[in-house]
Amino acid sequence: MPEEVLFKTEELHSRLEIAETLVDAAEQIKAGTVQLESTDQSETVTVPEEPTFEVELERLTDSETGEQRYELEYELHWTE
Q: Where does the record place the Amphi-Trp domain (predicted)?
């Protein structure tokens, strides 16, 4: 099944700003409707009562520099 990206944003933020965004997202998820907004795009989605919740922490190492990068992802998914 081909993937269709409906919304994506990636920007540097402070830990505090990220935490505040996640708290807001949690409240929206609890209410059942999530509004995603950036300066140039907006998307609203209804979250079902029991979506699958995935948490993933990855460590990636650059093969040339040896630098390590971490990715922490929180993901909800469901089928309509």
A: 1-80
